[in-house]
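Ticket reopened. Same input as before:
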Amino acid sequence: MFDGYTSSELMSIFAMQGFAGLSLFSVFVLMAMGLAIIFGQMGVINMAHGEFMILGAYTTYLTSGFFQSYLPGLFGGYFLVAMVLAFLICAALGALVEWLMIRHLYHRPLDTLLATWGLSLIMQQAYRSIFGAREVGVELPDWMMGAFQVTDLVELPINGLFVMIIALSIAVGVYLLMYRSGYGKKVRAVVQNRPMAEAVGINSAGIDRATFALGCGIAGIAGAAFTMIGSTGPSSGQAYIVDTFLVVVFGGAQSLIGTIVSAFGISQAQSTMEFFLSGSMAKVLTLLVVVGILMLRPEGLIALKVRR
Amino acid sequence: MLATSVQAAVPSTAEVNTTGLAVTDDSVTVGILHSITGTMAISEIGSVQAEKLAIDQINASGGVLGRQIEYVQEDGASDWPTFAEKSRKLLRQDDVAAIFGAWTSASRKAILPVIEQYNGMLYYPTFYEGLEQSPNVVYTGQEATQQILAGIDWAVKEKGAKTFYLLGSDYIWPRTSNKIARKHIDKLGLKVVGEEYYPLGHTQFNSVINKIKLKKPDVIFASVVGGSNVAFYKQMKAAGVDFTDEQPLLLTISVTEDEIRGIGGENVEGIYASMKYFQSLDNPNNQEFVKAFKETYGDDMVIGDVTQAAYLGPWLWKAAVEKAGSFDIDKIREVFAGIEFNKAPEGYVRIHENHHLWSKTRIGRAQTDGQYQVVYETEELMEPDPFPEGYQ
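Engineering reply: fixed in the latest deploy. New output:
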């Protein structure tokens, strides 16, 4: 397995693969965080999560087009505007969807699964009608291209670093929101014991709507970030959704820490195996290990202790 | 006198249609069967547009055997069983005289038994892995040897390539293509330093990019398909791999002008593609074709290799019908070999007796504007060889 590499090459390999694993880790965190919030806190399986990501990506695409035509001088900074817009638009749509559809289906988790799956199909068709079936590319400002040269072999792509920073900021933001704010306290109260939370005057319907909107908004930011590394088409959301569910379920559905731990484990395992085995083989092995561990720990890596 | 001579030019329906196809005294119905929904829609819509354009042009110039072409369009929905079902419907219910359609090998394989059972005729436009030859299919794209052997020979001869890294999506076409590529590279006494496959839709290529940097191949031979391409080229660029200075050289068999639109021209500048057609081909046929295509579908349209191959379908069918003097599939089949099309946008094509086309292979270099500049083309038409000896 290590044949044919000198020891300095091996060092570089581990450095580069470590970085590749970290950037995969940030992608996983971005994808899974929104889903984990909605699933973990509300018990709703949001099958349209990938489509919300794509909505964020299309928002970025439109913003970049707008800056190119009307504000070419500010093009270098459009990305930050796009991320804010992506969050706001996805969160607004999320709130609307919660009000129209989800709130009628609480206590019926399988029905939310079907309803959000239908929603995902509707959104895909809408994208197809509005943007066409072809994939669109988003042009990056120059400062986001290129890489930092660390040694001869080791180079760190700037956009990879950027995705990492976004993922880190969001993880920290969500942590502060959930564990250091009044809103977070209420969310956790509702999750642990809904009737008791309502009895002490917490507006659980409002909390639900805000949480769903938050999860969708984070999906939007993830989508904006992914335009840097991937493609945007009506059905690209489907490509992400399997990995996303894998991360969330493996981590333990109700635990945000679990999501991060599982994203880290899966990404590092996959990235290391990808180098020494083939790409497809790495994926298969990762899946096998995850299935094996889930058989031993059906509730996921980190389970929340709740009295039932 | 004049009236009778015009009538004599249009043979009677009983004469040209003895097998109950949908042919009347003034019309003939054909089928168009592509995915216009689902994941393949991105690629196949261009083929639908090209086939309709060809049909319109043929109609405007008087039709086929004096009959206007009408078409029934069905949606394969990127689902192979649906392709089979719709082809059965086209043949049994609509009695179409020909079917233009399919893109993936999987959809073609799904149609094949149906079309052979009911003796229909499929005009299939995609470059593909070869190893097939059905009496009921005409392959208007390139088969593997036409695309790959000429491409590798070019890289070896013109660019002095010695080492190759093979990279593809994980399904039959890239795997077969790389098998042929590897055999050919071995035969030339050169070296394959890596071979790698990633699942369809994969978007993380950091690991393979690291490997490529370590192994420093002269040529990256790429057959990654669909949306994965966007991720691959963006990440290559971000990792500091610059194709404009030719080291490493990237030779793709899967990125047409269509895909570049999604990837972004700035990310693929300098890569090479081995195909038979590029939108930038400089000949009068192609200029006319590009102009007509843009007039019909809009100025921002781009035309890729497969779109052109789809455009050939109706024209080759018309030529064959007129040579046979009949719409009957069996009679058409007898006259296939040697049918030519002088007005092909790619220049000139001829049908080989193995139902594939003789055509030139060209190497194009991608520009920032998303177009390929042709840097090389084979002097002669390449003979199609779907069952290459020693390459299977």
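DSSP finds eleven helices and two strands in chain A. Chain A touches chain B through 48 residues (CB under 8 Å). Please confirm and we'll close it.
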